[in-house]
Specification:
Elements lengths: L19 H29 L10 H30 L8 H26 L1 H8 L4 H15 L1 H9 L4 H4 L5 H18 L4 H15 L3 H63 L1
Helix pairs in contact: 1-2, 1-3, 1-4, 2-3, 2-10, 3-10, 5-8, 5-10, 6-8, 9-10
Length: 277
């Protein structure tokens, strides 16, 4: 009896649907390009603004230019990262074209998501240092909010030990008076408005320190409080607008990365088909 050997063939192992090395490479490229573009944009922004009157661009123009530049940064950096992820991913053999399109889109989206996480975790400090000078109002609002939370008890202690302004004007340390008034204004503005007794006390201190009449001191205190509230409200509005533009830029970047990945995948498969042929 003769036994013939029969070779059992197994299907070739399919390439994994997700190529994490390609995604990581695209994310690093996108993060690096984002940092480069932020540095360039900050340099152009500092050269366009000026502290002198009638010189440089206006504040509204600067805000619009910043928002548009955020969109440009998202487009260029995300498209680069998505294209790199699409070109470097593993070639899929025997996969339907619709599935290839979906996988390429997913690779671009994942490279954008990973780049966003990298940017939030490792580039936030560098980006804030680069662009920090362009938004002093936001830093001021953040400092006021932090002070209001940390110095709440100091306000009540000062209220208990509050002296007679007229009798203690010559003996009270100016630094202590400034700190006390700063605490009163911080709490009052944080609550919506400075309470009547606090406003009267601040006006009395100002009158005793500056020699103004009580009526003029009251007027100065009211003007300063209104100016501070206006500045903080402007900073709040600027922060809200920046958040909305940043959200739009991130979504725009996700779309650009996904689209660029499909193009990069098509180029890679086309080049591979030419080599196989």
């Amino acid at each position: 009896m003769v036994f013939e050997s029969v070779e059992i063939s197994t299907p070739a192992e399919e390439s994994p649907a997700v190529s994490w090395p390609a995604i990581a490479a695209g994310a690093i490229a996108a993060a690096a390009m984002t940092l480069v573009l932020l540095a360039f944009g900050a340099g152009m922004g500092f050269s366009a603004v000026s502290p002198w009157g009638n010189s440089g661009i206006s504040a509204s123009t600067f805000q619009i230019s910043t928002a548009l530049y955020l969109m440009v940064v998202a487009l260029l950096a995300s498209a680069l990262g998505g294209y790199v992820a699409g070109r470097l991913r593993t070639r899929w053999v025997g996969v339907h074209t619709h599935e290839v399109f979906f996988r390429d889109t997913a690779h671009g989206f994942l490279s954008w998501a990973l780049a966003t996480v990298i940017g939030a975790g490792f580039l936030a400090a560098a980006a804030s240092n680069i662009a920090g000078g362009a938004s002093p109002g936001l830093a001021t609002a953040a400092n006021v909010s932090a002070t209001a939370g940390a110095g709440g008890l100091d306000y009540y202690v000062d209220a208990l030990l509050r002296p007679n302004p007229a009798a203690s004007a010559a003996t009270t340390d100016l630094g202590a008076a400034r700190r006390e008034i700063a605490g009163i204004l911080t709490k009052g503005i944080g609550d919506g408005d400075v309470a009547g007794p606090d406003r009267t006390y601040v006006a009395q201190v100002v009158a005793a320190r500056t020699g103004l009449s009580q009526a003029d001191a009251d007027k100065r205190v009211s003007n300063v409080i209104e100016q501070a509230k206006t500045d903080l409200d402007n900073a709040r509005k600027a922060a809200a607008k920046l958040s909305l533009w940043l959200t739009a830029a991130l979504l725009f970047g996700a779309f650009a990365a996904s689209l660029a990945a499909t193009q990069g995948g098509k180029v890679r498969d086309f080049n591979a088909s030419l080599t196989d042929g």
